[in-house]
């Protein structure tokens, strides 16, 4: 059933949020592929270049030391493979969900909510354990998008109900 009603600001916000999620999913997928092929020495070398050029202030300061440790841990530990798997899985799942939401595949709306809620739980859990600054931000964005998906699902269901 096609609706002839005017698009509201909320409709446009939903479309923008879904587009951003799609772009985000695509960038995560590409990022995972890049991390697979970028040698770990390039990661530590880039961090070292930033530190030695005083781009973060004192090369022996807290920020520089933290960057060097994080780059070494990332390049030489399991964090790199975690990031590759996380970005690859997250990107592919987001791209599938975005496609389904754009096509208005109704059964995928609740699936999207559950999947994104699982991402939120995992992002918060991981943030608590890693002290990540970015993950709580991503979780908050996902909560907003979950809210928008629920709203859109309810609206579409109302539009599909026969007039009484």
Task: Summarize this entry quickly.
The chain is an all-alpha fold and 164 residues long. It is 80% helix and 0% strand.
Percent in strands? under 5%
Which descriptor suits the 3D outline?
elongated
The number of distinct helices, counting runs of at least 4 residues, comes to 6
Total individual domains: 1
Class inferred from helices and paired strands: mainly alpha
Q: How many β-strand runs?
A: 0
**Oligomeric description of these chains:** single chain
Spans where pLDDT lies below 50 across 5 or more residues: none
End-to-end C-alpha gap: 16 Å
Helix content: over 70%
Described by strand count, sense and barrel closure, the largest sheet is: none
SSE ordering: HHHHHH
User: What radius of gyration results from the CA coordinates?
Assistant: 20 Å
Mean pLDDT: 85
How would you characterize the overall build of this protein?
This protein has one domain (10-154). It is elongated and about 70 Å long. By secondary structure, it is an all-alpha fold. The longest helix is centred in the N-terminal third of the chain and has 29 residues, at 9-37. The protein has 6 helices and no strands. α1 runs antiparallel to α4. It has helices at residues 9-37, 40-52, 62-76, 79-102, 108-130, 134-160.
Keywords:
164 residues, mainly alpha, 6 helices, 0% strand
């Amino acid at each position: 059933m096609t609706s002839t009603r005017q698009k509201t600001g909320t409709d446009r916000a939903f479309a923008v949020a879904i587009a951003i999620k799609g772009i985000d999913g695509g960038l995560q997928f590409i990022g995972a592929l890049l991390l697979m092929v970028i040698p770990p020495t390039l990661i530590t070398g880039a961090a070292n270049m930033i530190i030695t050029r005083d781009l973060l202030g004192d090369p022996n300061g807290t920020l520089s030391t933290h960057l060097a440790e994080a780059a070494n841990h990332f390049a030489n530990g399991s964090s790199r493979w975690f990031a590759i798997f996380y970005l690859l899985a997250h990107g592919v799942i987001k791209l599938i969900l975005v496609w389904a939401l754009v096509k208005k595949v109704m059964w995928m709306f609740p699936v999207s909510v559950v999947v994104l809620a699982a991402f939120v739980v995992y992002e918060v859990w991981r943030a608590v354990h890693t002290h990540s600054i970015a993950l709580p931000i991503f979780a908050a964005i996902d909560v907003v998008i979950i809210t928008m998906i629920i709203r859109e699902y309810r609206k579409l269901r109302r539009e599909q109900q026969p007039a009484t």
